[in-house]
Design a protein that fits this description.
- The structure holds 2 protein chains of 2 kinds.
- Chain A is mostly helical.
- Helix content of chain A is 72%, strand content 0%.
- Chain A has 2 helices and no strands.
- The longest helix of chain A has 65 residues.
- Helices cover 38% and strands 21% of the residues of chain B.
- Chain B is built from 20 helices and 18 strands.
- In chain B, helix 12 crosses helix 18 and helix 14 packs across helix 16.
- The longest helix of chain B has 34 residues.
- Classes of the chains: A mainly alpha, B alpha+beta.
């Protein structure tokens, strides 16, 4: 009888500890998630700001490449391809490699 | 130990455990305030951090996605400084020094500066805004304590004048609310706006609020928007339009490049335009997007739509013939061809190729009025195009309700009915897309701040014509384009279905101007499985008569650019 009572008390104590620990763990998980969410939102804002800076450079690049004349390109050794050749396959082909 | 003692011990342990938990929570919060956000509070304490009241510095970005899914930020935030002075502590010598040092790095208006600096009763006045980080630090290094430097963020549009009508800008409305004005900034304002975040929220409220946003995809409405416009194509189109505008001294010029199968817009531009970063000196009328909000009588570019109706109804085919005298009488009116000349017996292909008004009246006479009205409504005339931009116009289509034959005769060659350019390209897409219209749109995806993203779906449009009719009209339009200037303008390896239009511009008092025309041109290619449809127009070009003289070359140039850019293989 005495042993049973002791056991029960241990179980009750164990449950109480488990409840407290669960609450602590749960709170930690929530807090950690929230802080991570906050951090990620801040990082996203920083990324967006950096993307804007990159975009300014990109637009300068687009304007440069749109304003290159054929004669400018030829000065750098580039040649205008007047007739672009295309190849097409009319049927499926298989390839076998014999070693 | 008795029972009471034991119970007491248990309760003591519970209380002790509770105290540990509460202590843990408090320590965690303290850690967050001191370590994670300590810098923010430090800056605040130093008086260098200014919180904007309207939260304009936090706003979603607008991206345009080009070839290869490469994204370019076309509306974002830039961080920098604003500069303040304390006029009550400055003498003339210091004021002059401040002006000289600031102006050497960042231009400011001398008169405005001196009038503000002269207000010696004030202890705080802002004298310059939107200073870049580098410039701000240079100025601070020279002037030190004479000025105050405050971090600020502002909206920036890296494309500058490009896509200005599409993007819009931020400003105060009549109710003093700071939000998106015009363009995508206005249409997607709810998505782009960021609510003011309170730094001092209760820990538990913040905790649970943040988690809910993570798991519920519909809960968060704030995000960034991604559009289908390709910045390189946009810049190219604008260069072509600017060329037309300058060469012919037009009143205005515009163009659209769209996927006729999906309605995705690759470029949408109007000249004159403006710089979204610095728009205050422009008249209000400039900010309205003419592609979406202005309406025009497009003239002969409307003819293929009417021919398609005749083909679809089965009242004509490509070989139906008509005797052209050069004019035709409708009620008490006489309608002429553009050159007032007759061609004798012509078939429907010739009517289109030679753009004969008399032939169009003949075709129109074969179509029942009710059918004509039904088809025009199915094309989308008289309703908004559905584009995701504000002030989408329904057009002026009241003549569809008329009982008079002359109105329908006029509408058969594109006069007496006025629609927006975006509605026009929507209707033409039915010719290119197996008889089905599409909903033109710019934004294809929203990325929400909680990590979820949504691909936007648009109304698939209406089946206006049969697939067979679409093929027949496309073939006829290929013949039209191939035969311009005796075949000198055709693209050898790519079939292009196209038509020009030269329409008289209505006069405000009624009737039409004798000497003012609207030139328009549309083309889609490859004609039988099109990937692009282009619409160009120019209003009141000077000292030139026909659209074939103003718009065909820019169209060919744009088509070739797209063919090279996307490596479109030949189809003939």
């Amino acid at each position: 009888m005495k042993t049973q009572t002791k056991k029960r008390k241990k179980i009750v104590l164990g449950m109480l500890v488990a409840i407290v620990l669960s609450f602590v763990t749960y709170s930690y998980a929530i807090a950690s998630t929230t802080f991570s969410t906050s951090d990620s939102m801040e990082k996203n804002i920083e990324i967006q700001d950096l993307q804007t800076e990159i975009a300014e450079l990109e637009v300068d690049y687009f304007n440069m490449i749109n304003n290159i004349s054929v004669s400018d390109a030829e000065k750098y050794g580039l040649k205008e391809i007047k007739l672009v050749g295309y190849a097409s396959l009319d049927q499926k082909v298989t390839v076998a490699y014999n070693n | 130990m008795n029972k009471g003692q034991k119970q007491f011990n248990i309760r003591l342990k519970i209380v002790f455990g509770g105290i540990i938990v509460i202590g843990f929570v408090l320590i965690t919060n303290l850690f967050y305030i001191q370590v994670k956000t300590g810098d923010d509070f430090r800056i605040q304490a130093d008086g260098q951090y200014v919180v904007a009241t309207n939260n304009s510095f936090e706003r979603g970005n607008i991206y345009f996605e080009g070839i290869g899914e490469s994204r370019t930020t076309v509306a974002g935030q830039k961080k920098g400084y604003k500069i303040s002075i304390n006029p009550s502590k400055l003498n003339e010598e210091k004021i002059e020094k401040i002006y000289t040092e600031i102006n050497a790095v960042h231009e400011i208006d001398r008169e405005t500066f001196l009038s503000r600096a002269g207000r010696s009763e004030r202890s705080y006045i802002e004298i310059a805004k939107n200073i870049s980080k580098q410039d701000g630090e240079k100025i601070k290094a020279e002037l030190g304590g004479y000025i105050g430097l405050h971090v600020e963020k502002w909206r920036i549009y890296p494309l500058k004048e490009s896509a200005s009508h599409v993007l819009g800008f931020l400003g105060f409305d009549d109710n003093n609310v700071f939000d998106g004005r015009y363009g995508l900034e206005n249409y997607y304002d709810k998505t782009l706006k960021r609510e003011d975040k309170n730094l001092y929220t209760n820990f538990f409220a913040r905790a649970f609020h943040g988690v809910q946003d993570l798991v519920d995809s519909d809960r968060v409405t704030e995000g960034n928007i991604i559009g289908s416009i390709d910045p390189q194509i946009q810049l190219f189109l604008e260069k072509e339009l600017m060329g037309i505008q300058e060469k012919w001294n037009s009143q205005s010029t515009g163009g659209i490049i769209m996927d006729p199968k999906t309605g995705e817009i690759f470029a949408l531009a109007a000249i004159p335009n403006f710089d979204n970063n610095n728009f205050s000196d422009n008249p209000l009328s400039l900010f309205k997007n003419p592609i979406v909000s202005n309406i025009y009588e497009f003239g002969s570019t409307m003819k293929p739509l009417v021919v398609a109706i005749g083909l679809d109804e089965g009242v004509i085919d490509s070989e139906t013939e008509y005797y052209d005298n050069g004019f035709v009488d409708v009620e008490k009116y006489t309608i002429y061809n553009f050159d007032k000349k007759g061609r004798g017996w012509v078939d429907v292909q010739e009517i289109l190729s030679q753009s004969l008004n008399t032939g169009m009246v003949f075709i129109n006479s074969k179509i029942e009025k009710d059918s004509f009205i039904k088809y025009f409504k199915k094309y989308g005339f008289g309703e908004k195009s559905g584009i995701d931009l504000p002030n989408d116009s329904s057009g002026l289509t009241s003549n569809l309700k008329s009982k008079r034959d002359i109105e329908f005769a006029n509408m058969s060659f594109g006069q007496g009915i006025a629609i927006s350019p975006i509605s026009m390209i929507k209707a033409i897409s039915a010719l290119a897309n197996n008889g089905k219209t599409v909903t033109p749109h710019i934004i294809k995806e929203i990325e929400y701040t909680n990590g979820f993203s949504k691909t936007l779906e648009y109304n698939q449009g209406r089946q206006v014509l049969s697939s067979k009719t679409s093929g027949e009209i496309s073939k006829m339009l290929v013949n039209v384009f191939d035969n311009y200037q005796n075949g000198q303008l055709k693209l050898e390896n790519h079939s292009v279905a196209a038509k020009t239009g030269t329409a008289q511009i209505p006069a405000p008092d009624g009737g039409y101007y004798d000497d003012r025309n609207l030139h328009s041109f549309f083309g889609y290619f490859p004609a039988y499985d099109p990937e692009f449809i282009i619409l160009l127009y120019t209003v009141y070009p000077k000292q030139i008569r026909y659209a074939s003289q103003t718009l065909i070359d820019p169209f060919r140039s744009t088509a070739k650019y797209l063919i090279n850019y996307y490596n479109i293989p030949p189809d003939r």
